[in-house]
Amino acid sequence: MKIRVLTTGALIFSFFLSAQTPIQNNSKIDSLISVCLNSRRNPVDFKANALKLLEASKLENNTKGVLAANQFLSRIALGQMQYQDAYNYCREAIKLAKDSNNDGAYHAITNTLAQVHFQTKYYDSALYYFRGNLSFLKNEARQKFQYYQTQRNIGNIFLRENKLDSAQYYLQAALKGFNAINNKMFSAQTYNMLAEVDLIKKNYNAALTKASKSLELTKAINFRPNLASTYNLLGRIYDEKGNEDQAESYYNLAEQTKMRPPKGAATDASWTTKEKSIAEHKNKRINRLTTEKAFYQSNLFMAIVILIGLGVIVFFLYKKNKISKHEVAQLQEQLDAFNVAYEKLQRKSQENTPETHRLELPSGKLIVLEEVVYLKSDAHYVEIYLEETEAPLVERISLSKLLKLLPENAFIRTQKSYAVNIHKIKIINSTQLMMQNGIWVKLSPNYKAALKERLHAN
């Protein structure tokens, strides 16, 4: 937290001192401003001195002092995550900067306001102010660091919004600038952000290269606040690459190097505020996940899943039944047309040659083909069912061999163990055939297509 205050505070103070033009000369107010700047390493003293400056400046109606006090207090509130206070101080400072035509102070405070919007996840507003500052800083040769820092902030917003190409563009530009001015601390942090982009894009090798570079810089300058996050990032990269042992090793290092509360009463309040905020966010997340898990394990959720599953099954059964009915209707129409054509052929045949067709079986028995209704296989025997007879004629032969002896255009297999005389079929449904003698014979899906083709061909 101490380093965070120094890092974030350095930007506004260097910006403030380099850009601000004198408005009013007052030795008491100038002295208080100096006291504030000298105490900025201690958040508690810094805030107390900034409040004294604000009170004294208001009593003397000193715009310069009021503006400086509001700038200081906005940065302190931002560092302590008191975002509403930070916002109020920013708005007051912006008004004073505009009234006094102090462009440097205006852009310094809008930079703080942008960070307030960023921390509270109002990313569109944050982006608006950061981009405004970027245009101002581009022509300020003395403020290169602030320019690169603003590029980094814009890249961070795009990263949060998962706009990865835009994030990569601004972060790479910021990294180039930080490297040019040899700022290893911000280079290390920016390498981490770029590694996050590559990790989301699943460019694991590129992510590993950048995270390793960040770790190298972090160790070189002993930048402890960045150490645990870099180890954690490396752990996640190796996790995605499938190297569980390496990932676990980095996760352990992240836990070991996690920052502990700093010693000393001066920073206790700030650190406590931060830790409390982190704990609250973790508890909210745990509660949300627990609630979601409880719902997914509840009877209501199971009932919903079952109802949806039943709905899907009913829909597919209905669709299948509809298709089956349509197919059966077509088969019945083809059968009726086939029988009409066959009867005509029979009448014409009887006029010319009234004799019937007979077949001598291997056993020597004679059968009239026109009287055969259906055949049923029973082990090594075939039962031949004829018209006007209840008991079948039994022949020692396989169904396949017998079918080779019968007219191909009249007899067809309907199941592994059944074959029928096509001319004796009266009704067709999706799974059975009713023969002329009233017997239902099974129709297998594997043979349905062949029957349909035979009827259509005839």
UniProtKB/TrEMBL annotation:
The transmembrane segments are: 300-318
Q: Which InterPro entries match?
A: LytTR_DNA-bd_dom, TPR-like_helical_dom_sf, TPR_rpt
Does this UniProt record's set of keywords contain Transmembrane? yes
Start and end residues of each HTH LytTR-type domain: 366-457
Pfam families reported in the protein's UniProt record: LytTR, TPR_12
Signal sequence, renumbered to the chain: 1-19
Q: Does the keyword Magnesium apply?
A: no
What superkingdom heads the lineage?
Bacteria
Q: Which UniProt keywords apply?
A: Membrane, Repeat, Signal, TPR repeat, Transmembrane, Transmembrane helix
Q: By what name is this protein known?
A: Tetratricopeptide repeat protein
Q: Which organism is it from?
A: Gaetbulibacter aestuarii
